[in-house]
# Entry
Amino acid sequence: MEDENTATEESNRREENGNADSLLTASITKKLRSLPPLPSQCCIYRVPDTLRRVNEEAFVPRILSIGPIHHGKESLQDMEGHKWQYFKSLLQRKPGVMVGNYVKAMRKLEARARGCYAESINCNSDEFVEMMLLDGCFIIELFLKNKNKQLRGEGDPIFRRTMVLTDLHRDLILLENQLPFFVLETLFNLIENTDQECPSTSVLELTYVFFKFLGLQEVLIRDSQPDVKHLLDLLRLWFVPSSPTKSNRSKSRFELIRSVKELHEAGVKFKKGTVSCLMDIKFIDGVLEIPPLTIEDTTDSLLGNLIAFEQSCNRCTPRYITDYVILMEYLINSPKDVALLSRYGIIKNLLGDNEGVSHLFKKLGKEVVFNSDKFQFSNLCYDANDYHKSRWHVWKATLRRDYFYNPWAIISFIGAVLLLFFTLIQTVCSILSLKK
# Structure
């Protein structure tokens, strides 16, 4: 009897476990089926936590939200009214295009646009379409008014206040504050040629004019740019060279460059570059040529978001901006390095504090991952360090620094050499006379 009860209990446990397993299996299967497919075209990401912890302020919008990541934040609501006003002014200039035309165009792009974001978006279809329409038209109208002053109203609060426009410049380059570029192009194609005062142009040209103060390359603005993902991606394409640097020397080990002060003490000369490409840094015959860089309040945000984009996107190879910042971080090791670069016109420091510039590059390089095998400035670092190791170059630099720093020092040095020479001659003559 006891054995029968035990067998019954065991059977009941198995049945209960079997039911529990079936329920868990069904639950897991349901979750798997509800998962959205991984976006294959994603290009807009949240900033990696490792970078955000170093300088969170550089990645957060101040006054404007674009796209779904910061959409609806209370601190950014003031600009929402300006978005509606800009959309209204745009519609008034082209009464032939109804609101429905814009809505239909955005609805067709919804699925494709959602796939550009690396995480799921908590917006229903209507909310997402309205957001794309409002944000996209705001950007285009802002760019049009920036290029053509005649389109601005007398009371336009954005162009009346420099601080607002400065914050907009900054917020539109944030990685988390982007719209897919094809959304802007689609909206612009509906708006194009609507203003007789504003001649036909392109989104590329409007973007270039709006951000030209950043020192972008004087590139030829074409009607189409291959594979542009969003505004930040376009800025990156304009900052980097058209073709990657090729390594022509195999090295036994990777090494980063010495600081500006160390190189200067070894006789390296510094020269302000004349080309507009920020990455076009050269080391030839003891001369390190670096294109000029203006350091201002938004520099950390610009470079930080470009780095975050490169760190997040596998398509961004070579990682030019990352490698550039790593190079500058090692060149600028102290305020003295900043002072030397400023003296040669390579750095224009609008922060007013050399310590601040040095700290800026240390902060930008913190927690950044770079590939030493594909580092774009490997040859330059090798050549500059090799020059630094030469004793002859160090001796020449010491002689120039300690004895040839002004005309009087040169005269004194020559006088000392002549005195030594005549003393030696006199000594030799005295010895010879004694022998006679």
